[in-house]
């Protein structure tokens, strides 16, 4: 049975840590699922893999195409579809339409949207009441890169108060979980303690209920990666080595063997 959004809240009560990673294709989805990852986010960080500089140009169509592929590779993990920039902010109808396409066309079980300001909280409530599970995302929200940059958020007392208020409002609106990105770890702990739904941290310290990384950062496949990411293996180096070996053997007529 696939993992459900309700199970994640039970795990929080039980103190079981949630393991989340991003995937953008069938192979990655299959490998992550096979390795026991609990939650697979089809992140709009897909933009980087497609060669865009930010997540802003990414379209709903591009996300749908990749999410379908990921979903085909996943049996157990909860698959979350990251709604791209300006596919949910325009109106409730737009958010409903985009979320509907995400769930119905790809088989993802939930959507994620960025922000915690009042209009977003109302959008979350609308989606949840219609039966769409929603994950929140506050702190550094990369879709607002031209307003915020990629700096750590929640550093001043006012800003950290605002983030606490937003987290509580998102939970009250029915979000099943919230991503906390690039905020001080003490603030992430405070938010985590105030909520009954699980927090999933990225660059938010070790006090969250779960952790997420962008899989290409973990695998050493990203062109650049944030300071809080950890590279567990350098696949870029491994690929370069394999390709160079192939090139040498082809040029020397050593491959294929006679
Ligand atoms: O798009 C993404 O990969 C994300 C995670 C970093 C949370 O939003
Ligand atoms: Na994202």
TrEMBL record:
Keywords: Cytoplasm, Magnesium, Metal-binding, Pantothenate biosynthesis, Transferase. It holds the Pfam family Pantoate_transf. Binds 1 Mg(2+) ion per subunit. Pathway: Cofactor biosynthesis; (R)-pantothenate biosynthesis; (R)-pantoate from 3-methyl-2-oxobutanoate: step 1/2. This is 3-methyl-2-oxobutanoate hydroxymethyltransferase. One of its GO terms (molecular function) is 3-methyl-2-oxobutanoate hydroxymethyltransferase activity. Mg(2+) binds at residues 44, 82, 114. The active site is at 181 (proton acceptor). Its main location: cytoplasm. It is found in: Cytoplasm. Its cofactor is Mg(2+). It comes from Gloeocapsopsis crepidinum LEGE 06123. Catalyzes the reversible reaction in which hydroxymethyl group from 5,10-methylenetetrahydrofolate is transferred onto alpha-ketoisovalerate to form ketopantoate. Homodecamer; pentamer of dimers. The keyword Metal-binding applies. It comes from the Bacteria. Its EC number is 2.1.2.11. 3-methyl-2-oxobutanoate binds at residues 44-45, 82, 112. It catalyses: (6R)-5,10-methylene-5,6,7,8-tetrahydrofolate + 3-methyl-2-oxobutanoate + H2O = 2-dehydropantoate + (6S)-5,6,7,8-tetrahydrofolate. InterPro entries: Pantoate_hydroxy_MeTrfase, Pyrv/PenolPyrv_kinase-like_dom, Pyrv_kinase-like_dom_sf. The gene is panB. Belongs to the PanB family.
